[in-house]
Structure formats: C-alpha cells, structure tokens
# Entry
Amino acid sequence: RIFENENLLKAELIKAERESSFLDNIFPISDSLIEFPRDISVWGGQNNIEVGFSFVKEMLATETEPGYTTFILAGKGSLANMINFLRLIENSRYLIQYNQYDIVAENSGGVYTLLINGQIFSR
# Structure
C-alpha cells in the first residue's frame, strides 16, 4: 500500500509540474508587460486607431494567484477598424480581463470612441 501511494504521489507531482509549466507560458513575467503599450500602439497604427494607453496599478503575483496590472486604454476610429483592433488584442499573447468596456458613436462621420478599463495578468 505504501508503494502504491508513493507511485500515485509521483504521478501527481509530474502532472502538477506539467500544469505549472503550462501556466508559466500563459502568464508573462510582469517585467515583460512593458511591451504591451508598444504592441497596442502598433496595432492601433495598423488599424488607423488613435490610441492612448496608461498603466494604473500593479498587483504582484502570489504563490496561489497570478499578478495583474490595471490599465486604461482609449481609442478613436471607425467601427470596422475598432473591431479589427480589438481582435488583435484578443488574439495576442496577453491574458486580459475587461472591467469596463465602452464603444460610443461620436456625432460625426462614423467615428467611434473606445474606452477600456482592464487588467493584464502576469506572474
């Protein structure tokens, strides 16, 4: 029975190490988040979106929870370009949660304003 338990624990340890490695690949190191505003700017430029971006607050990861950095993103452009821009963000390597998300039509010429308040996760 002791040997069975030992083998079971070893198998669980191997599984946990694999899952830990998987999570490490999902969550970037918090220092690498400095690349996110640059990526946002590039994606905005590719889609003719005027973009403003600001990091707000960082919460460091713990042993049981990922860290995150809150941010505010503002943009202005056509609705089609805005949707393409948002798709680039969603399909990026970053794991993001939106806390507030507004797209509002302006009064003239099919121009829309985007405001996102969100969190980007890290380890």
Notes: The radius of gyration is 20 Å. The beta strands are 50-59, 67-78, 96-105, 111-122. DSSP finds three helices and four strands in the chain.
